[in-house]
Amino acid sequence: MNLIEIIKADYQQFPNNQSYNIYAEDVYFKDPLTEFRGLKRYQSLIDFIRKWFKDINLELHNIKQVEDTIHTEWTLNWTTPLPWQPRVSIPGWSELKMNSDQKIISHIDYWHCSRWEVIKQHFPL
């Protein structure tokens, strides 16, 4: 299975059974909330999402590779475990850079909304 197919499968089952073997040990990760380096930290982030949020769905809209970078467009949805069970949606995109061994060395997520807009989804009027 090639890297594009593996990523598609990971999105379909996110955050369960992710293919961590496609990432370099010192992978760089950044999104609008956090930034770090290291596969163990990346696994911890995914574990946190899996354990804390409910009904998680990562919908892949588009995926393409341009040279050493895979671009994905997606929408991440979940239910936050607050008493009123708010449903949160973050549309965004990722840039996954690969090394010559086809391992992902950089995973940067961007959102089509602000952090404030995500917070407001937790407290609807």
3D structure, described in words:
With about 120 residues, this protein is of the alpha+beta class. The chain has one domain (about 5-120): Roll (Nuclear Transport Factor 2, Chain: A). Helix content is about 25%, strand content about 45%. The protein is built from three helices and six strands, in the order H-E-E-H-E-E-E-E-H. The chain has a six-stranded mixed sheet with strand order 2-1-6-5-4-3. It is globular and about 50 Å long. This is DUF2358 domain-containing protein.
Descriptors:
125 residues, Nuclear Transport Factor 2, Chain: A, alpha+beta, 3 helices, six-stranded mixed β-sheet, 26% helix
List the helices and strands and how they pair.
Layout: H1 3-13, E1 23-30, E2 35-37, H2 39-52, E3 54-66, E4 69-79, E5 87-98, E6 104-111, H3 115-121
Domain unit count: 1
Q: Please, how many helices?
A: 3
Shape: globular
- What's the main sheet like? 6 strands, mixed
Percent strand equals: 35-45%
CATH uppermost class = Alpha Beta
Instruction: Enumerate the strands of the largest sheet in spatial order, edge to edge or round the barrel.
Output: 2-1-6-5-4-3
Pfam family, one: DUF2358
Protein name: DUF2358 domain-containing protein
Organism: Euhalothece natronophila Z-M001
